[in-house]
Structure formats: C-alpha cells, structure tokens
C-alpha cells in the first residue's frame, strides 16, 4: 500500500472569495492530481485528520470527499480509507475538445446557485407570465440588465439601445437578414466563427476574406474590398478571436472604426470572450458607436443553458427591422432563462459566477500549456487554444485520426471563409492548425488526460501508430 499523501504536500490556502470551502478542498485535490503531486493509489488523510489540519468542520471535509468521488478523483476502499482514483480506461469514451463552452466555475456550487436563482425569479415574477408569449427584444428590466452587464466594456449606454436575444447565433442571423440582401457580400477575416459562415450560406449571402497582418484585419484591404464588392457589412470577432485567440489592439480597432465611419459600413462585432482577456481594449462599438452592432452572449462566459445574448444597436438605428428579422425564425427568448439572467445580473450573481469561471479558464490555460509543452501554442487566457500541427499532418486527416483515438477537435478548415484563406496575411494560417477547447471536460483531471493523448497523437505519423 502506498504511503499516505501528507496534506501539506497538496493542500493550498483557502481564498476568502473562493467559494464554499468543501469545493476549494476538491480544487486542491484536482490541481494536485493534475500536477502529479497526488498520484493514482495515493492514500488521502482520514477525514477527521484533514479537518483538524485545515481547521474546518468534519462535515466540510466529508462533503469534499463525497464531491471528489462524484468527480471520479477518489475511490473509497472501506476501512482502508480514500485513495486517488486511477484514470478510467474506457475505449468507447470520446473526450471532447471541440466545443467552445465555459468550464465549470471554480469554487461555486452550481446546483445551489441554480436553485437559489430560480427561487428568486419565482418570488419576483408571476409564474403565468413566465410561461406565456413575450414581445421580442426583452422587457425593460431585461434591457437594463444588458446595459449593466456591458457597462464595463462599453461604458454607460442607454438601455433602449439593448436588444435581448435567445443566444448569439440567432442574433447574428437576424443581423445578416436585416442588414444585407441575398447575394450580398459580407467581409470578414480569413478565419471566422463557423456559425456566421453557416448563417450566411443558409441566407444566400457570400462571405469574402479580408487579409490580416499581425494586428488583425488590414484597413487598406478593407477599403479596397468594400469598394470592389460594394459591401455594407463587416463581421469581426476582435477579442480572443475564435479560433486564433488573437486580440486586435486598440490602435487597429480605431483604424477599422475610422474606415467604417468614412465608408458608412456596418460592423457586426461578435465579442463573446472580452471578459476572459487580461487587459482587453475597448470594443469596436466604443470607437464607432453609430456603425457597430455589438453582440455579447452569456453562453460563452457564464452558462450555455441561459441562452441569453445582448445586442447593442448603433446609435440612432431603428430596432424594428432587426426584431422583425429575429421574429421570422424565433419568436422570443425563453422567459424563464431570460428572467434568471436578468436576476443574476441585477443581484451580482452573474459577476460572482463569471469570476469563478474565469479563474477556472485561466487555470486550464496554464495547465494546457504545461501539458502540451508547445512553444508555438497560441492561448491568451480564454477557453480555447490554437495549435499548429507538425508538417506530416493535414488538418482533416488529424481530425479523423483523433476521432478514431477518442478525441474530438476542430481543424482550421472549419473556420476558413474561403478555401485556403487561412494562409492570407501574416502567417496566422499557413501550417495546418487545430482549435483545442478547454471547457467541455468536467474536471482538470479529465482535461489533462485528453491533452496528453492529444500530444502523443500529434507526434505520430501514420494510422498504424495511433493508439486508442
């Protein structure tokens, strides 16, 4: 039997604002397992001994051990005690590194948070109203919540400019439908969010790539292509861009805003990751408030199930055209989820939840960079990484081989505005790349397992070498 792991080897210090202490203890375990300070088979201290060591109630440690077993970090062996669990070998399990969702929040009991939130909504709202049709765009309280949520990036904005939509995808589709005509060109960087490309194709619009340099979309090429195609709309994801993780600096944002003002272009600014960046510049909407539709979704920074996105309309822009387009395919946001989002923004829960998610995202970024050990890996604090593949791999072949090895990733070709367009500009493209999403794994332990398998796969050269 292995020697018991000493608490001082893996237990950290409690943070005053780190959430319930039992979850912080689970976090200590998870971090130590990820860092190999706790190894499979190590015996954890008896619960009462750990409680005395940490100066907490026994029930706190009991809850921590129970939660750790639920996450498959520990296994109980009766009178022998609790031990670090060995990784489960499940050949049918697929580890998903393909979907960009926020990770589980660090130090927050999500079950309790949801129960309390829904309870508060029901106290302050009529259940009948939550289960009936609502006008699109959100109530006054919903719009006020959007203005409050966006005050940090945009400054003080009039709530009358805010529309509440059921997710960013529907907002993007409504903007394309209302601001462009069939066959019209939409300008974007060479690599763009696949949801935008899908919506444009379904609506009969054409997306054309504008070359980039080290700071992002080139203003001179934007002018040239806008005039060539008589384009009126530009799509940009300027902060922690999906997929490259690139953040457009403030000087380039101002230059793009100046072009939009001079040519009377409309910019759709898709900005779901602004709050994950360490010191992000102001959004484009700050520089050109009369020319930018600013889209910010809670699904990428809080919880996908909230299905709530805010669209800040350009100053002086009528809303009915956008709302009419939205109503053509989705009548309204889900009232209960919208009400929960509004409640959480107004009472500060959203900010606390964001802090826990952001801390977990940053911890996973550091963990991934250490695990993969690739100096060329692009990651800047968000919920995904952008990895160049060795020359012997093509993007699509790697995705297929990774799937056969039980790993889901996305190749650069899924983001290309035009076939081969990822090589335009300053070399963000060129070699085959994959996007690695860090939030879907239930724990850091599971994430490390997936990343180690991914790292091993990138070094292999043929199907015969792929180990499932």
UniProtKB/TrEMBL annotation:
Keywords: DNA-binding, Pyridoxal phosphate, Transcription, Transcription regulation. It comes from the Bacteria. The keyword DNA-binding applies. InterPro entries: Aminotransferase_I/II_large, HTH_trans_reg/aminotransferase, PyrdxlP-dep_Trfase, PyrdxlP-dep_Trfase_major, Tscrpt_reg_HTH_GntR, WH-like_DNA-bd_sf, WH_DNA-bd_sf. Residues 19-87 form the HTH gntR-type domain. One of its GO terms (molecular function) is DNA binding. PROSITE patterns: HTH_GNTR. The keyword Mitochondrion does not apply. In the C-terminal section; belongs to the class-I pyridoxal-phosphate-dependent aminotransferase family. This is DNA-binding transcriptional MocR family regulator.
């Amino acid at each position: 039997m292995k020697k018991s792991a000493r608490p001082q080897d893996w237990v950290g210090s409690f943070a005053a604002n780190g959430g319930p202490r039992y979850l912080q203890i689970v976090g200590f375990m998870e971090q130590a397992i990820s860092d190999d300070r706790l190894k499979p088979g190590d015996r954890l201290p008896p619960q009462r001994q750990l409680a005395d060591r940490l100066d907490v109630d026994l029930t706190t440690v009991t809850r921590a051990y129970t939660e750790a077993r639920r996450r498959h970090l520990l296994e109980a062996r009766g009178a022998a005690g609790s031990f670090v669990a060995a990784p489960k070998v499940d050949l049918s399990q697929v580890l998903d590194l393909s979907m960009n969702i926020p990770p589980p929040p660090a130090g927050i009991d999500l079950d309790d948070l949801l129960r309390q939130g829904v309870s508060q909504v029901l106290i302050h709202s009529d259940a009948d109203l939550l289960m009936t049709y609502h006008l699109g765009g959100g109530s006054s309280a919903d719009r006020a919540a959007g203005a409050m949520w966006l005050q940090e990036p945009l400054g003080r904005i009039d709530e009358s400019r805010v529309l509440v939509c059921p997710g960013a995808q529907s907002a993007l589709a409504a903007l394309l439908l209302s601001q462009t005509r069939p066959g019209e060109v939409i300008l974007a960087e060479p690599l763009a969010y696949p949801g935008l490309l899908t919506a444009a194709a379904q609506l009969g619009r054409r997306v054309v790539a504008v070359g980039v340099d080290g700071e992002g979309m080139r203003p001179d090429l934007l002018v040239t292509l806008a005039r060539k195609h008589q384009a009126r709309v530009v799509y940009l994801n300027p902060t922690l861009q999906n997929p490259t993780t690139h953040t457009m600096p403030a000087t380039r944002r101002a230059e793009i805003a100046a072009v939009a003002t001079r040519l009377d272009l409309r910019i759709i600014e898709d900005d779901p990751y602004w709050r994950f960046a360490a010191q992000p510049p102001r959004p484009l909407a700050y520089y050109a408030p009369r020319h930018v539709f600013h889209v910010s979704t809670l699904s990428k920074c809080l919880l996908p199930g909230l299905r709530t996105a805010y669209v800040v309309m350009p100053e002086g822009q009528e809303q009915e055209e956008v709302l009419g387009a939205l109503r053509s395919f989705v009548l309204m946001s889900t009232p209960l989820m919208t009400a929960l989002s509004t409640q959480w923004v107004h009472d500060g829960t959203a900010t606390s939840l964001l802090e826990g998610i952001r801390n977990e995202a940053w911890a996973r970024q550091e963990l991934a960079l250490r695990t993969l050990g690739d100096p060329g890996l692009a990651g800047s604090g968000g919920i995904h990484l952008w990895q160049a593949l060795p020359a012997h791999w093509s993007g699509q072949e790697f995705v297929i081989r990774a799937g056969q090895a039980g790993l889901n990733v996305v190749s650069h070709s899924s983001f290309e505005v035009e076939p081969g367009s990822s090589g335009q500009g300053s070399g963000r493209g060129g070699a085959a790349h994959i996007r690695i999403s860090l939030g879907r794994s239930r724990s850091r332990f599971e994430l490390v397992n997936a990343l180690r398998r991914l790292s091993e796969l990138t070094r292999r050269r043929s199907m015969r070498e792929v180990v499932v």
